[in-house]
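Hey L., structure's done. Input below.
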Amino acid sequence: MKVLYSIGATATGGRNGHVKSENEVLDLEVRMPKGLGGTNDDYANPEMLFAAGYSACFDSALNLVIKQNRIKTGETTVTAKVSLGQIENGGFGLAVDLHANIPGVSMEEARSLIEKAHQVCPYSNATRGNIEVNLSVTTAES
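Output:
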């Protein structure tokens, strides 16, 4: 792989600790969410950070595909819902539901665009075959 960009982050204290990027742009406390035994949902957690990264990356991939295909659309949005669960071997795994809204195109075209974006997106390529990723799309105007 030809590296185009690289960034590091350091965690201390695991799910009840702190994360900081090497450039110090990201610098925040993380806590176990209530659904996993934490006291509340007032802090970031690893699944939230993954959802934010995946949704931003997928939206960029989607817009690249739209541009490459010279398609006119309204502003796209992508929502990633990341789920954490126990897997058969007793460990833990992730699943992601990705929902894109692509206004101004037909539903058939929207489905084609998200499938193409799923082939381009680095997060999709990194997770393919490792976790379940479900795609859905709408074409609603905002």
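The chain has a mean pLDDT of 96. DSSP finds three helices and six strands in the chain.

-- N.
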